[in-house]
Amino acid sequence: MIEMKVAGIAVDAITRSPIVLLKDGTERRALPIYIGQDQAKSIIAALENQPPPRPLTHDLLVNMLEAWEMSVERIIIHSLQDNTFYAIVTVRKGEVKKDIDARPSDAIAVALRTRSPIWVMEEVVADASIPVDRDADEAEQRAFREFLENVRPEDLIKRGRFSNGEA
Fold first, then answer.
1. What is the pTM of this model?
2. Which superfamily does CATH assign the domain made up of 2-133 to?
3. How many CA atoms lie within 13 A of 1 on its CB side?
4. Any idea of the CA torsion for 78, 89, 7, 18, to the nearest 10 degrees?
5. Average pLDDT for residues 72-90, to the nearest whole number?
6. Can you tell me the distance from the alpha carbon of 53 to that of 71, in angstroms, rounded to the nearest whole number?
């Protein structure tokens, strides 16, 4: 799994649909997820630390969890099927953990309010992410190709002691 952060909300130029943009820790990969208008507003409010005058749906959910002495441990965006992302919210009360099915947009809105980590399965990142820093990606690929061209098998063998004392 790869921990990601919300980079912001964008709008698709053609459909005018909001997109939440997640970035990995290196900010080299971005994962765009189309979301609804209400979820976009909720995510923006959480990003800007703007509490509403009255609790909205995600605020209500967080307030209920707190009232029941439950915490959000993390969210996981675990799969992508037919262009639809799937997520879970892992909640905890004491030693008991439960995974609750959720739309990624709702899970992200809750994670932002509870300062919980957002994790994405590596397969989802591989299938749906876009490169943010193409130059860095290309430089890394060039460096790796140069390494492979110049490496000898004996360079890869490390000598060390085994548990029985043999080298």
1. 0.77
2. Bifunctional nuclease domain (3.10.690.10)
3. 13
4. 80
5. 97
6. 23
